């Protein structure tokens, strides 16, 4: 079996250079999102928590009508980096991507679609499977000559997302641990955990902090896959984030649905930040018994938590107000 | 009738000096809250909006057990200024205030009470009337020798709250207009508009920007009272914010309940900020026809909106997730 250092000799889809380049490229266009903290939450967690509020990032990213670009809040940096890496000819023809909007399930995030339309983006519906989405994107590409940017499996996207933690470390240099939501593929029955593309991975060399990922138990389990060599053989050449996760993520913490909802509630009621469930996974992980009781993380005193996304449908809430 | 300049000769409970002093006093203890913007909301409003997210301010303020309790995100700066203006003997005996927690109405903000208890503050219930709250506070004061700080009718509170706009103008000096939620007394049937104390008034001399206030139509109407001399005669010596509002607020915009809920929805879904209805009133005002169609405000191009409070009970939302 390869050692960790041997594995790191391979070329990754993103590295510290490409992330720094992305930061220079996108900084005029993005929001430098604030880092919030709460003594109440510090007290509940028994650590100092630094919430990087990437959910305040600009939303859908639209280039040239009528071609679509869908992006949840978490993906703006990546999308921005991908777009501004194009030459003018490419950019003029537009960009196509696909996104996991689960329109046919209960509590689907209608507001995500509304946001796309608000930005004059074009939404083309497909069946809610990855295969169907990819087929539809191919068809649109053939018809229009637009450029396809995969929503997460693209070095430019990964590098753009990587600027989140680069920025976070500039804002809160005392951080010794970063925890990010993970999982591009989600099988959760209720499909609320729409993390989508990009893990916001900061590929530091040398690593100066612990880098943890958190995913819902309901998701197709990356934690299990990491431990399964066959899975690596099959997928790691196809999925660009996979070797990065494998080699740089120190551990993956899985959390129960109910704990994610509880973390989301703390985000709303204490931090006053409206995240979607996937955005609250990092907090859920930090508050989980698995994390608290693991001696490996006892010295994680200053934890950066990336809060991403905000595409949760709050219709039930507004309805209750107007009753 | 007095002219505006004559009226301004009187002494106010807070002025630019007391606000600057408050800023120095409280700055080590408060969060410098971020200013967020959204191109989507700018586009909806037709102006540039700068959201001062005071809802991220520290929450309940707790000094010495078992007394005191001040709560509500909006009031931290004021409370902080009041407490740190006390001498050590006074502070040792604790502080009492009262707050409008409407526990007996539908959708009462339970989380507000929970937050108070979380900080080891003591909640003493009274009947939900101002008179009953004041009587209860008096009783506690007599029993304990604690210091009473009125939740909004106190120069130290007003000065502390005034630091919000002072800070906002430092962060976004291009602002030409500031709009704040107003109304200490709320009669709204559903009692959701718990603005509570302090108007965050920035008493500038000379005024270099338009200073507007917004209140729900359901509230005891300050806009109407301002135009009613009898009301001034009766109240302006009792209510310290009254002469400040009368002399410095350029106009009061009243907004419908349904428009406040819509503004709140935009805050959650686009800004991703979890405000309570009262906190979204400023945005509702800016989007109202009354504001849009008033030629007096046509040159208000850079509007600072203070988003305050977050004590909205989202129980219905969590219930929907866990169904």
From TrEMBL, chains A, B:
It holds the Pfam family PALP. Coiled coil: none annotated. InterPro entries: Ser/Thr_deHydtase_PyrdxlP-BS (IPR000634), TrpB-like_PALP (IPR001926), TrpB-like_PALP_sf (IPR036052). Its cofactor is Mn(2+); Mg(2+); pyridoxal 5'-phosphate; Ca(2+). Signal peptide: none annotated. One of its GO terms (molecular function) is pyridoxal phosphate binding. The keyword Transferase does not apply. Residues 106-309 form the Tryptophan synthase beta chain-like PALP domain. PROSITE patterns: DEHYDRATASE_SER_THR. GO terms for biological process: D-serine biosynthetic process. The keyword Ligase does not apply. Belongs to the serine/threonine dehydratase family. This is Tryptophan synthase beta chain-like PALP domain-containing protein. It comes from Camellia sinensis var. sinensis (China tea).
């Amino acid at each position: 079996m390869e050692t960790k250092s041997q594995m790191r000799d391979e070329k990754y889809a993103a590295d510290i250079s490409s992330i720094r380049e992305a930061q220079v490229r996108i900084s005029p266009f993005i929001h430098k999102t604030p880092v919030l903290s709460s003594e109440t939450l510090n007290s509940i967690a028994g650590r100092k928590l630094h919430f990087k509020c990437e959910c305040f990032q600009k939303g859908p990213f639209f280039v040239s009508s009528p071609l679509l670009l869908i992006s949840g809040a978490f993906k703006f940096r990546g999308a921005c980096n991908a777009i501004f890496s194009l030459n003018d000819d490419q950019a003029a023809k537009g960009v196509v991507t696909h996104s996991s909007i689960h329109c046919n399930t209960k509590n689907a995030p209608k507001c995500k679609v509304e946001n796309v339309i608000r930005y004059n983006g074009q939404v083309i519906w497909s069946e809610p499977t990855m295969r169907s989405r990819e087929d539809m994107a191919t068809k649109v590409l053939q018809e229009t000559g637009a450029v396809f940017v995969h929503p997460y499996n693209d070095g430019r996207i990964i590098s753009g997302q990587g600027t989140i933690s680069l920025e976070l470390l500039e804002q809160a240099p005392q951080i010794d641990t970063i925890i990010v939501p993970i999982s591009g593929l989600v099988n959760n029955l209720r499909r609320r955990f729409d993390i989508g593309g990009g893990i916001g991975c900061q590929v530091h060399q040398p690593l100066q902090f612990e880098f943890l990922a958190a995913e819902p138990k309901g998701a197709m389990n990356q934690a299990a896959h990491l431990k399964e060599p066959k899975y690596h053989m099959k997928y790691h050449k196809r999925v660009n984030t996979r070797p990065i996760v494998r080699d740089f993520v120190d551990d993956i913490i899985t959390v129960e649905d109910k704990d994610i909802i509880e973390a989301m509630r703390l985000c709303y009621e204490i931090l006053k930040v409206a995240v979607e469930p996937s955005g609250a996974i990092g907090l859920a992980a930090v508050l989980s018994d698995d994390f608290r009781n693991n001696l490996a993380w006892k010295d994680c005193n200053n934890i950066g938590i990336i809060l991403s996304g905000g595409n949760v449908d709050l219709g039930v809430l507004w309805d209750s107000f107007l009753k």
